[in-house]
Amino acid sequence: MTERKVWWGDFTAADFADGKASEAVAVLPVAAIEQHGPHLPLSTDSAIMDGMLETAIELLPTDLDVRILPVHKVGKSDEHVYAPGTLSVPATTLIDHWSALGDSVARAQIRRLVIVTAHGGNEEVVGIVAREMRVRHAMLAVRTSWDRFGTPPGLYPEAEKRFDIHGGHWETSLMLHFRPDLVRMDEARDFASATPAIEAENAFLSAQSPHGFAWIARDLNPAGVVGNAAAASEAAGRATAKHQADGFVRLLGDVARAPLDRYLG
């Protein structure tokens, strides 16, 4: 039995010239190498991306043609550059680079692209690149992130969900599932966010949207992470991975079935 191919680099040039590629959905995964506090490695976002993709691949329907580009493991992490070890690329450079990759996807006769990020700091860049692909190539270009698919109901306390945005309960749980060898639970604790206190003092101003000011990670907590990492568990990470990967696969199905002549005027 031939193993199914999903990674872009595993296909041959002929595989892109057989007329079937035009029905495929390309996936551009982008992540980061940046500080994640005292308990998680710099590679957290990239490790989560690798694990989430592998989880999603296991859930792909056999009739869904997905071609995943190489994971881009360094992104825009300027909110963490004060911390040693963080790697960051300027937004303008990433826009050019990721747009050039989108151009290559278009040359392969693919008009459906999903850009998925495992790092919130990439969101603005991803949005710009997706719009560029629509303008340049009449491409259905979708931007998303794993956390946009939410978490299983009742798994995490509702009160913490909005503020647990970096290295906290759910990210630490995912790392306990994907790479427990890299997690230092003896260093994990409840890293409280400054955001609730800031919001209590103001009518609209906040460190988070919809009226958020620009921040760097240590503005929210001196440790550079926020959320109750001490409450993390492998079981929660496993359930979160399955939930988010399932949502991602359903999104890919939506994109594959989308009538381009109707959605793109």
TrEMBL record:
<keyword id="KW-0479">Metal-binding</keyword>
<comment type="similarity">
    <text>Belongs to the creatininase superfamily.</text>
</comment>
<keyword id="KW-0862">Zinc</keyword>
<dbReference type="GO" id="GO:0009231">
    <property type="term" value="P:riboflavin biosynthetic process"/>
</dbReference>
<dbReference type="GO" id="GO:0046872">
    <property type="term" value="F:metal ion binding"/>
</dbReference>
<dbReference type="InterPro" id="IPR003785">
    <property type="entry name" value="Creatininase/forma_Hydrolase"/>
</dbReference>
<dbReference type="InterPro" id="IPR024087">
    <property type="entry name" value="Creatininase-like_sf"/>
</dbReference>
<keyword id="KW-0378">Hydrolase</keyword>
<protein>
    <submittedName>
        <fullName>Creatininase family protein</fullName>
    </submittedName>
</protein>
<dbReference type="GO" id="GO:0016811">
    <property type="term" value="F:hydrolase activity, acting on carbon-nitrogen (but not peptide) bonds, in linear amides"/>
</dbReference>
<dbReference type="Pfam" id="PF02633">
    <property type="entry name" value="Creatininase"/>
</dbReference>
